[in-house]
């Protein structure tokens, strides 16, 4: 079968098979291009390396000129079965649907993020392939990236969890860049080497310019909205495939779930409340009252100290694990503004008070851990922050995750806590309790 005919057959199967009908509807949004593999190589790449690269190249996903795009390599089409080609197209659609072309920016190592995403997509697709949900019209390619050590481990069901596992357990060696912004390198896991190739490319606008973040976000939102509409209006259309009982169906439902954008609100809150000029980040070097009105009047700063974010986590029983997991993911992105991150976890007393270098902080450091789970009091938290403030520690912002079923309001009125007047605070609330405007004019409600 000619490559063009093989690609056309795979696309028709996706559009005509009930178990893949959602993908078939989404496929109309994509440009699919045929990439000549040999044109990617320059004369410096040895023949042995070319053979390895050809075996690993399948396809890539990206956004080109504001449109979702999939590039499929000629070497893969030549060697694969139609069922394997179908698998790869499904895989790349999910990359774009979940905005993986953007998510790599939130992680220190974008390549490991790509592999973590590959693992999550492939393990879920593979389960459905083995279960026969795709009616034998999809086959897992030989070199699909799946980490066998954690394939069936329920502790690694999200990209963040797999990413952290890779950071701890995998070693990335070498790296070979070739045409089209693609890179191959060797990943060593438990002493075994595996050649891997990235399949997420940077977005491309008109000419050489990249597409701005808001536009990229909107493209993904539009695709998710379409998927949501299809699934909501399809009745039992997806019940035999991407629906009940389907691993990939559950993954897609999670992807397209309508989420309150509290994470972006918190990120904006942080960006608004910190000092934007890196040369004048010290709160000691600003007049606080004018700053609260949006006016910046620096005063002389005698001694430079690290700029610190304090995170206060309410560990009482009413703050559930899922709230803190959400909280941790946005903090991983937001701590880039600071030199240090100090995390206090408490119920009626502080059980954990640890300071990290922001550049070295991982999601594992921010991840929820069960400590306390009794009632709630912020007294010791306020005392510790006040002590640091009196020692002139450079505290730039305090973020509190709480249900506000505590004594925060009473403590706020106590004049001995001068830090409440000098340091900005963002309150992140996991319920509908109202926050007094003198504490935070714009609290973030994560479950409204």
What key phrases describe this protein's structure?
single chain; 448 residues; alpha/beta; Rossmann fold; 2 domains; 6-stranded mixed sheet; 3-stranded mixed sheet; 17% strand; elongated
Describe the fold and architecture.
Helix 5 crosses helix 7 (110-130) and helix 11 packs across helix 13 (321-334). It is elongated, with a radius of gyration of 25 Å. The protein contains 17 helices and twelve strands. The chain has 448 residues and is an alpha/beta fold. The longest helix is centred in the N-terminal third of the chain and has 21 residues, at 110-130. The strands form three sheets. Strands 9-8-7-10-11-12 form a six-stranded mixed β-sheet, sandwiched between helices. A three-stranded mixed β-sheet has the order 1-3-2.
Portion of residues within helices: 25-40%
The unreliable regions are: 235-243, 275-304
The ordered string of helix (H) and strand (E) elements is HHEHEEHHHHHEEEHHHHEHEEHHEHHEE
Strand order of the largest sheet: 9-8-7-10-11-12
Kindly report the average pLDDT value. Answer: 79
Number of helices: 17
Structural class given helices, strands, pairing?
alpha/beta
Main β-sheet, in a few words?
A: 6 strands, mixed
Overall strand count: 12
Share of β-strand residues: 15-25%
């Amino acid at each position: 079968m000619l490559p063009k005919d093989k690609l056309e057959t795979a696309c028709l199967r996706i559009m005509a098979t009930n178990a893949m009908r959602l993908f078939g509807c989404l496929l109309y949004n994509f440009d699919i291009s045929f990439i000549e593999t040999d044109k990617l190589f320059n004369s410096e790449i040895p023949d042995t390396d070319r053979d390895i690269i050809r075996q690993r190249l399948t396809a890539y996903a990206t956004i080109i000129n504001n449109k979702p795009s999939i590039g499929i390599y000629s070497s893969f089409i030549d060697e694969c079965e139609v069922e394997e080609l179908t698998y790869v197209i499904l895989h790349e659609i999910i990359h774009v649907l979940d905005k993986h072309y953007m998510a790599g920016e939130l992680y220190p190592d974008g390549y490991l993020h790509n592999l973590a995403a590959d693992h999550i997509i492939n393990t879920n697709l593979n389960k459905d392939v083995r279960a026969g949900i795709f009616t034998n019209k999809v086959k897992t390619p030989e070199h699909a990236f799946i980490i066998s050590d954690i394939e069936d481990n329920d502790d690694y069901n999200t990209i963040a969890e797999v990413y952290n596992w890779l950071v701890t357990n995998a070693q990335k060696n070498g790296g070979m860049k070739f045409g089209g912004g693609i890179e191959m390198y060797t990943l060593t896991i438990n002493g075994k080497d595996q050649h891997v190739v990235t399949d997420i490319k940077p977005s491309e606008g008109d000419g050489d310019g990249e597409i701005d973040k808001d536009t990229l976000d909107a493209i993904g939102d539009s695709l998710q909205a379409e998927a949501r509409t299809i699934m909501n209006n399809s009745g039992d259309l997806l019940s035999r495939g991407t629906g009940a009982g389907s691993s990939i169906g559950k993954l897609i439902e999670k992807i397209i779930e309508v989420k309150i954008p509290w994470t972006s609100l918190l990120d904006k809150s942080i960006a608004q409340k910190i000092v934007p000029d890196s040369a004048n980040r010290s709160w000691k070097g600003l007049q606080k009252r004018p700053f609260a009105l949006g006016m910046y009047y620096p005063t002389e700063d005698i001694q430079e100290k690290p700029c610190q974010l304090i995170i206060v986590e309410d560990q009482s029983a009413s703050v559930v694990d899922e709230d803190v997991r959400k909280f941790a993911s946005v903090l991983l992105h937001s701590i880039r503004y600071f030199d240090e991150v100090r995390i206090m976890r408490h119920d009626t007393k502080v059980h954990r008070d640890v300071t990290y270098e922001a550049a070295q902080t991982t999601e594992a450091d921010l991840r929820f851990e069960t400590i306390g789970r009794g009632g709630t009091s912020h007294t010791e938290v306020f005392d510790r922050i006040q002590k640091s403030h009196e020692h002139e520690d450079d505290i730039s912002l305090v973020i509190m995750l709480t249900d506000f079923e505590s004594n925060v309001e009473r403590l706020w009125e106590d004049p001995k806590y001068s830090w409440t007047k000098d340091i900005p605070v963002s309150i992140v609330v996991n319920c509908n309790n109202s926050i007094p405007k003198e504490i935070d004019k714009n609290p973030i409600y994560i479950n409204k």
